[in-house]
Amino acid sequence: MTQDTQAESLGFADLNLPSSLLDTVRKLGYERPSPIQAATIPALIEGRDVIGMAQTGTGKTAAFALPILAKIKSGSKNPQALVLCPTRELAIQVSEAFQSYAANIPNFHVLPIYGGQDMRTQLRGLQRGVQVIVGTPGRLLDHLDRRSLDLSELHTVVLDEADEMLRMGFNEDVEAILKKTPGNHQIALFSATMPPPIRRVADTYLKNPVEVKIETSVTTNENIEQFYWLVSGTNKLEALTRILEVEDFEGMIIFVRTKNSTVDLAERLNARGFSAAPLNGDMNQALRERTIEQLKGGKLDMIIATDVAARGLDVERISHVLNFDIPYDDEAYVHRIGRTGRGGRTGKAILFVAPRERRMLRSIEKTTRQKITEMQLPSRQDLIHRRTQEFKAAVTDSINMENKSFFQRIIAEMCHEQEISPEDVAAALAYLLQKDRPLLPPKGKEPSERPEREKREREFTPERSKKGELPNLGNAQSLRDYPEIVMERFRLDVGRNHNVSPREIVGAIANEADIDSCYIGQIKIFDDFSTVDLPAGMPDELFQMLKKTRVMQRPINLKRLDENGAKLAEANQQKQPPRNNKPRTNKPRKPAGKKRDFKGKDRS
């Protein structure tokens, strides 16, 4: 049955959650369950299988995490719940959410498991005991093949973002894991869409599931200009400092993820001459109210806040919201930037996005149905111009000061005694006044001062790495439909002798480089090496990161191959004695071929 449920009339107390979880939810600042939470939590607590169709950012993590925690037996050391995620970033995010929700559960442990992490670290975590496992399909299957993962006490399996796992070629791995799990557990499947392969999995493995479909209507205020800066080169604090110097703002809220970050960032900004204060859940009500009053009255220019601490905050002076840390929840982003642009006023929102967080940016844009504009950091010349203008204004305001004649006499005496001009004295005084904040900032290796590298970074998207304008490929088309996209061929130091398949290569590159798998071109696998085609223009930082990526527990040592190098490599390979199995190839977005025994493999 399909439910389009509204949660306005329900509270978390109406969802049959234990009191310990209700207390945690209240402390985290959640007031009412989202529609997906209101519809799925009661069914999961009853033990029913569930299919939840909802976009990222609608509160899906709490929808399955809270029911799982409601049934956790903290005394047992074997996993009781298994959550499958398409990427390591999502696995870490879900693990952190479990840890937050389980604040009142003694001896609770959650372990993220994903490719690229040291296997020994994961084995030690499993040996210590863990109640919830959150991981990517390939690495979870590795542990099951090694028999290092005991699922005998498993009561819940969650497939999070199932359509994304299908798109990344993990469908066979997911089914292999489901076949290895005990038969008496419940399954929750969450997916933004329901393509036929996902529907087939649901029909095969779920028993009489409750189906919930949530239509999102999250939008942002049209009065708010939205921008993002792709974190690169300069660290975030330096970038924030530049923005604060150049932007014209009255009051600002800077959002971070943790309470400690509010205090740390406020102290760092104060040390740089800004007026900032933290706002977090550890502050008592009196201190919170005093901080907000200082912001309202202009005694503070900015507050550094967490999502929980800023709930219900309405200060007319707030003209800017800056997301120093990108929120994990799309709706949290909407709530954050909603602190500005109220009552018909205009506002501006800025979002810092690390390279690995671009997927979250795309999710926010999809949820809000609005494109966020990329911005460039203010240049060194912008800083010089701004500081110079402020200096001139300060000097001009001081010309009409009282007792000016006293200082004029001192300057005249200095000029006579030292035989120097008034201009020299004025320049020396300006230096003394500005030496702690020089009008000429020191030159540094900023992204805005490296045009060639910045150009390469901007070009490294499939939409820009091309000869002509192309539509957004999305997830529906492959590179074969757009031959205009310029590709480069790379060599990887893993091959057939290392039991590698295209799936492992696609997973590693998609996770490490945040390159959509539909933009990974042809893969050829030979005895001692493989080749892969990727969009041209890869920035050096990303190239160096990929060189260190491991596949099958081996560094791939990525190398660029020009046309002659590629032909030579393949010619040398063909000189070796023939083998029965031919080089495997992988066309974009096609899953791997025949099923094999992947025992001992390290999948990303």
Structural class: alpha/beta
The radius of gyration computed from the alpha-carbon positions, rounded to a whole number of angstroms, is 28 Å
- Averaged pLDDT, please? 78
CATH architecture group name of the largest domain: 3-Layer(aba) Sandwich
The number of helical segments is 21
Helix % is: 25-40%
Quaternary form: single chain
CATH topology of the largest domain: Rossmann fold
Kindly state the number of beta strands: 22
What is the end-to-end distance? Answer: 36 Å
Name the poorly predicted regions: 1-7, 447-484, 575-604
For the biggest β-sheet, the strand order reads: 1-8-2-7-6-3-5-4
The tally of domains stands at: 4
Please outline the major beta sheet. Answer: 8 strands, parallel
Proportion of residues in extended strands? 15-25%
Would you identify the CATH H-level superfamily of the largest domain? P-loop containing nucleotide triphosphate hydrolases
Indicate the CATH class of the largest domain.
Alpha Beta
Shape from CA axes?
globular
Topology:
Blueprint: E1 2-3, H1 19-27, H2 35-45, E2 50-53, H3 60-70, E3 81-84, H4 88-101, E4 110-113, H5 119-128, E5 132-135, H6 137-146, E6 156-159, H7 162-167, H8 171-180, E7 186-191, H9 196-205, E8 210-213, E9 224-230, H10 236-246, E10 251-255, H11 259-271, E11 276-279, H12 285-297, E12 302-305, E13 318-323, H13 330-337, E14 347-353, H14 358-368, E15 373-374, H15 380-398, H16 404-418, H17 422-434, H18 451-459, E16 487-492, H19 502-513, E17 523-525, E18 530-535, H20 540-547, E19 550-551, E20 554-555, E21 559-561, H21 563-574, E22 584-586
Parallel strand pairs: 1-8, 2-7, 2-8, 3-5, 3-6, 4-5, 6-7, 9-14, 9-15, 10-12, 10-13, 11-12, 13-14
Antiparallel strand pairs: 16-18, 16-21, 17-18, 17-22, 19-20
Organism: Teredinibacter turnerae (strain ATCC 39867 / T7901)
Family: Belongs to the DEAD box helicase family. DeaD/CsdA subfamily.
Subcellular location: Cytoplasm
